[in-house]
Amino acid sequence: MIFRILEDQFAQKSREAKAADRRFMALALALGRRGQGRTWPNPAVGAVVVKDGVIVGRGWTQPGGRPHAEPEALRRAGAAARGATLYVTLEPCSHFGKSPPCADAVIASGIARVGSAVEVPNPEGAGRGHARLRAAGISVDIGLCAAEAAHDPAGHFRRSRDQRPHVILKLAVSADDKIAAGGHKPVAITGDAARTRVHLLRARSDAILVGIGTVLADDPSLTCRLPGMEARSPVRVVLDRALRIPGESKLVHSARQTPLWVIAAETAEAPAATILGAAGAQVIRIAPTSAPGLDLPAVLHALAEKGITRLMVEGGARGASSLVAAGLGGENWLVPVDADLGSLENADETLVALSNVMDELKATVPVAIVLLDACRTNPFPEGALIRKTPDDQGSPIAAGGLTPVRGAAPLSGGASQSKENLGTVIGFAAEPGRPALDGPAGENSPYAAALLRHLGAIDGEEFGAVMRMVTEEVYLDTKAQQRPWINESLRRFLYFGVPIEQPEGDEGVITGERRKLLLTISEMPEASRAEVQTVAARADVPLDSLFGVLRALGSETPSDPKELEKVLDAQAERVRKMIDQRNALNSNDPEIKRLSASADDAIRQGALVAAKTFLDEAVARVEATSSAVDEAEQLVKEKRIADAAVYAKRADASALAFDYLAAAADYGKAHELVEKWDERLRWNYKNQEAEALMAAGDASGDRALLERSLDAYQIILNYIPRDQEDRDWAITRNNMAVVYQTIGERESDPANIEKAIQIFRESLAVFEREKDDINWAAAQTNIGNGLLVLGQRESDPARLESAVEAFRTALDKRDRAKVPLDWASSQNNVGIALFSLAERTGSTETLEQAEKAYRLALEEYTRQAAPLQWAMVQNNLGNTLNTLGSTRNDRALHEKAAAAFRTAMEVRTKESFPLLYGASQLNLGNALYNMGKLDADTANLEAAVAAFREALTVLTRERSPMDWASVQHNMSATLQTIGQRTGDVAKLDESVRATEAAMQEFTRERLPLDWAMANNTLGNTLMLTGMLNNDPESIKKAVGAFRSSLEVYNKADTPKMWALVQNSLGSALQSLSQHDAMIDNLKASVAARSSALEVLTFENAPLEWATAQNGLGTCLLNLSNFEQKPEYLPEAQEAFEQAKRVFTRESQPGQWAMTVNNIGDVHWSLGSRGGGEKEFNEAIAHFEEAKEGFMAAGQYPLIFLLDKKIALVREQLAQK
Questions:
Q1: Contact 969/926 with Cβ under 8 angstroms?
Q2: Residues 163-199: tens digit of each pLDDT
Q3: Residue 404 phi/psi, 5° resolution?
Q4: Bridge partner list, 333
Q5: Which residues are tagged catalytic?
Q6: CA quadruple 793, 796, 802, 807: dihedral sign
Q7: Is-contact 205 168, C-beta < 8 A?
């Protein structure tokens, strides 16, 4: 047992040490990036010196490449570096250059251990720095965060290995793979965010390169124009073979402010070079070539010779094309079916290079088009090399072949084009690394069939649009298993002049609309596409129909994934019903049969407008012939039922196009036609009318439509005998309850939600009797949703506890093997309810249960299968981890929470899902704030404010008032903490303004709990302002704010928040005691803090508990001094000792030192009251110990004060 305990302790320490190593190396990497673009020819390196878990020095490579990061960090650490650990992103250099070796500086500083990310790249120096350190007795660990570290100095590595810079190609590419409009017309392809990103890339690059064509066409400045970063503009490089750059261009005019290098051929005229030199530009000449333009490999080599490591290439298609043609791209190979592994040894002879095919075509035709119906997979073993000739060095094979830059340039490598050549197009049947599927035996493949169907559109559509139709046709036909891929470099829009026979009649109408649908799908975000796939698979309906639904929505498509899923589920159910009821239309009229069949085909292909047109014609024919059907009752019945089916079909089509009111009218007409003839159909059509009315009311917010829906459901209930409470009765009542709940969620009165919950509960008995687990679980989930809404409005946690129970009960009926996504949905619901409950009660165990539920949900909600739900659960999990981190005082959990929010935003992008992006930015700010509270500096707190400000760009008051208020409140708390750390009153004033903004929405009448929270935040800010300004009036206002908060918070319903406000009130009263009613305010402070400690414990809120203990001890110590009552002192000392359990020397040296200082004050007071020499010596020992903590925390003024206190104690000792 003893050995096992020691092993566990060792493993725990090992894990903690590795986590600390990663954290400090991540900081070093971040520091290194500060130098990118300013350190060439040297790499941008970061370094951190850490001693006893505390950062004592930081450094990064300075502008110009010197000093290096290591000496800079060691200089800042000073004597504290001895015995410390140095974290550095690149192996310390071992050679003498313009400065001494960094390895020698590390050795001289007394560093005990070095954690290094990667070795230097050049063979002459690789490993030598590490070897020199080890020879000096320094422990060296290599490989910390190696993958991340290898990316940052990629330019240095490339320059060392290949004698050329790392090249970054910037192209703005439109959705149809174009980079510019015809005729050099200016056109904006990207937005503000992308342009900001480009300027940031410029600042991080050593140089930026364009061709003379771009200079002549655009007259660019090529500078970094981000606020505060203008000085970080890179060297501007222009490829200008004949020195045609105008002297009046912006580049030449600014050459003395920002370096300008013009690269020309050696044959360029000397006078032009002289003029450029006089303007401050530098001309670099390289040997001319027989081909037009400059020798790009020679250009890159020349730039590397001048020290450039990171080169950003901007400009147009010609420059990008030239880069690819210069050998910076790969090759695609066509592999014969009889090829074997030996074919790789002489690929030029045994395989077919696609670029060669393209070159031959371009030599003979103006436009080279190749369409390949072939797999894009690698048939050779992993790691195999391909050699063009037996003597070739060989290149690795990518999973999908060596693919070129998409949409940027021709695929060929070096062949010159004729004057008549207008570009190239190459189409692949599948994406890189994916197979191309075969069609049914004896028929065309999906790719060939799509080409045959849509090449007919070329007569009126641009060729690129037609190929996008082909891509999405294959995608739909193969149920998302295959998606073609196209690369084009056309210089003009391409149209074919010879018309191809087009489909006519109904098929022509459907095909025309389908082509528009395919183009819409091609522009759809991947997350929305994946959501459609998920819903279509779950409901077993055609993908085409659901994509048609999204096209009908257009700009009204919900950005919230939950709302999108809700809409798609509802429409999928309508599609499924239409498919199931296809035989309901039993008309003897051949024209109606034809129109109905065409409508079915149109809906299957997503052509909803065409379907509506066909059904309009069918209804018109019904209405034209209805008067002729009155001869016999049987004929009338058949005719009415048939006519009703036509109305119902048109209603289905209207609903799919989101015209719910038209759908409700047609369902109502269908109901009228069958009401006296068929009981089952009348029930069905009236039910569909009620559903359509509910959908219309839900979408528009029109309560009158929702009430009409309730009336329709009541009619359905009247069809069911009172003593026959069967499954249909329960389903109808459930549907009514959903309407009541929808109404109730939009009003403050809980009556309608209460009514809905009661109906759901009454339905459970029927579903239980009928053994209908699906509807039973749905009813339980609805009960949970209602209880959750009510519980979040109330201070009593009872409803939240009931919501948890309801969701768990629903989960019992959802078999993971049969309905995995429903099971995952229930797990997520359980997590949400548990999290809300834990926030109310402060229970750590409940939070841990919520975390477990979310992680179970993520086992089914994967990023591939359900990306939107996956991102939603990642966000929910992050909230739980963040709260757990605060409960446990565990920084690692806050870091995991931040990682979860960042992961969620990979799907919840600002462009596709702005409100969800804003919510995740808000949550990220919360995690960074909690991390910042544990740090000595304010870096993470500033990052949190930045995240909150970014959230406010989408969470505006007009668009989402509650979320806007939450961001304002949380930002105010962060600004308050920054103001407290830095003593910056302006930050505190800004915090007050943000809190007051939040309280415009957080009113006591509507949201009492949020109002109380905001009062607590406002009180803390006012208290700090009063302390910094020595203003008792501000502190009195703070006391008033805390007491207002306590009018809502109470110990029974909101114990943790009640305790936190009591603690804050105690702090304010303690501060006020320095100005007014000293004894009374100190005693009131002791009472408030004692109340807080009735709830706060070391286990459930360690940081807040320790803060309350420290404050309690301070008040008792002051009372003892002012009332001359030593009996307070033992209790004060015990409170300080308790606080030290959390404020440790390793985790929070500043707080620990202050607590040790307070214990010293207790001993000093005891000594002064007759305790003798022992108490004085204890006081001195504690003061000396506290000095070490303040030194580690960088709080040097407090060390001076302690020295004064020690001198005073020594004087008292001397007098004894």
A1: no
A2: 788 888 776 655 444 555 554 455 555 566 667 777 7
A3: -80, 175
A4: 353
A5: 70
A6: positive
A7: yes
